[in-house]
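Researcher: Next entry in the queue.
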Amino acid sequence: MQEKKNILTYEGLRKYEDELHELKVVKRQEVAQKIKEAREQGDLSENAEYDAAKDEQRDIEARIEELEKILKNAEVVVEDEVDLDKINIGCKVRLLDIEYSEELEYKIVGSTEANSLKGKISNESPVGKGLIGKKVGDTVEVETASGTFAYKVLEIQRSN
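Model: Structure for this entry, 160 residues:
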C-alpha cells in the first residue's frame, strides 16, 4: 500500500524542515546533556530529572520520526504556478458567508498544514472539498457537522 502524499505549500515545507533541523541539531544535544547531568547525580531509580529527560528524549525522537515521514512523502505545491481561474491548493480565497453576510478569507492547504485558527483549511475538509474547482462568482453549499453553509466566491488570489 502506497503512503498518502503530504501536500505542502513551500511555506509549510520550510516550516517542517526548520523544525526537524532544530530538533536534530539543538534539542537532541540539550536533552543528552540533561541525561548526562542526571546520571551524574547517582541513583537513577528515584531520579526525577533523569526520568523527565528520558521522556523528553522519547518525545523528540517521536517528533523527528513523524517529521521525516511527512517530508519523505511531501508533494510541494508551487504557488506561483497555481491557476487562479479556479480554487485549488495553494491559493487564498475570499468568500461571502451568505447567511451572516460576513466576508471570510482562507488559504487552501494540504491536510498536514491545516490550521483553522490561522485561516488555513485543508483540501480534505468539508469546506475545502466544496471549494476546490470553484470560480469567482460561484455559490457553494457545504455540508458540515454544524449544518449546511452557503458561500459565494468573491476572489481567488496567490497566497504568497
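Model: The first strand starts at residue 6 and ends at 9.
Researcher: Noted, moving on.
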